[in-house]
């Protein structure tokens, strides 16, 4: 890929990590296409933005349009992710989290993989989370979507690397964006640092990258605690 051909599609580019990553790549003279639910604040000669909800029936069509205008896709960074403000007992919003965080990510891969494996090149980066290691009672759909996304990306990554296609699963700890609303945010990193990590991932193409490392180590311990909690939770009395 000569410098004139470096192009990336960032899905979820109007805010947060996706927006910071678009800025990072544009500063290195990449061409960047962005797809997001909202318009982008970015105004740059090498940036093209499309407003589209990844959960809408138009999404695949938009991917096709972006790919045609870009002369094919080399690198796709899937930065879309949502949580649910409603607790699961309210019975609303949970399935939407799975559809956006997992379903749409898989549909994006389904769109690029046949072309990439035929061509023998391409790189897909999905933003999972260290929350994939935890049981989160008030974030059930979020942690479930992330453990499924991590498992899917890494499994497909093991499958398609034989065609020269790379898939990277990036598991961030807390990043300072509108999504990180928890009162306690240990090891919080600024959004530009997250963008730099993604830039490294684009170059190094790892199957998995967990960042920051200290947070990843803490997540490993938390995972043990989380599993023990489930294993030691007594059955609920009152069964018939
Ligand atoms: N921030 C953290 O602490 C953290 C930690 C670990 C992992 N992550 C993961 O990193 C990714 C990016 O998170 P972030 O913190 O950058 O979140 P963010 O600031 O909320 O940005 C998410 C981006 O996705 C877009 N988006 C959301 N739903 C969409 C939909 N249905 N269709 C199209 N675009 C949609 C948003 O558009 P709008 O501008 O319309 O909102 C925004 O551009 C997510 O997958 C998240 O789970 C974040």
Question: How are the secondary structure elements laid out?
Answer:
Elements: E1 7-11, H1 16-27, E2 31-36, E3 47-51, H2 59-70, E4 75-78, H3 94-119, E5 123-129, H4 140-160, E6 166-172, H5 191-204, E7 208-211, H6 213-231
Parallel strand pairs: 1-2, 1-4, 2-3, 4-5, 5-6, 6-7
Helix pairs in contact: 1-5, 3-4
Bound molecules: NADP nicotinamide-adenine-dinucleotide phosphate (NAP).
NADP nicotinamide-adenine-dinucleotide phosphate binds next to helix 1 and strand 5.
Polypeptide structure, described:
The chain is of the alpha/beta class. It has helices spanning 16-27, 59-70, 94-119, 140-160, 191-204, 213-231; strands at residues 7-11, 31-36, 47-51, 75-78, 123-129, 166-172, 208-211. The protein has one domain (7-232): Rossmann fold (3-Layer(aba) Sandwich). The chain contains six helices and seven strands; from the N terminus they run E-H-E-E-H-E-H-E-H-E-H-E-H. The chain has a seven-stranded parallel β-sheet, sandwiched between helices. The longest helix has 26 residues, at 94-119. The chain is globular, with a radius of gyration of 18 Å. It starts with 6 loop residues before the first strand and ends in a 9-residue tail after the last helix. The structure holds NADP nicotinamide-adenine-dinucleotide phosphate. NADP nicotinamide-adenine-dinucleotide phosphate (NAP) binds next to helix 1 and strand 5.
């Amino acid at each position: 890929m000569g410098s004139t051909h470096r192009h990336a599609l960032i899905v979820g580019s109007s805010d947060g990590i996706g927006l910071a990553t678009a800025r990072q790549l544009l500063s290195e003279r990449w061409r960047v296409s962005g797809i997001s639910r909202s318009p982008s604040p970015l105004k740059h000669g090498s940036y093209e933005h499309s407003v589209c909800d990844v959960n809408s029936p138009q999404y695949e069509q938009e991917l096709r349009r972006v790919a045609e205008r870009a002369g094919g896709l080399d690198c796709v960074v899937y930065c879309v992710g949502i949580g649910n403000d409603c607790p699961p007992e309210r019975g609303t919003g949970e399935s939407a989290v799975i559809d956006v965080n997992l379903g749409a990510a898989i549909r994006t891969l389904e769109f690029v993989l046949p072309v990439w494996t035929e061509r023998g090149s391409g790189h897909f980066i999905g933003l999972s989370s260290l929350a994939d290691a935890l049981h989160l009672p008030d974030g059930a759909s979020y942690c479930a979507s992330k453990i499924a996304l991590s498992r899917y990306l890494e499994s497909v990554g093991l499958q398609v690397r034989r065609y020269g296609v790379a898939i990277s699963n990036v598991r961030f700890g807390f990043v300072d964006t509108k999504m990180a609303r928890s009162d306690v945010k240990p090891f919080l990193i600024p959004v530009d640092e997250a963008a730099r990590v993604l830039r490294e991932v684009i170059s190094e193409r790892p199957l998995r990258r967990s960042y920051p490392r200290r947070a990843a180590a803490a997540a490993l311990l938390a995972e043990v605690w989380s599993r023990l909690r489930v294993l030691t939770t007594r059955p609920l009395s009152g069964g018939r």
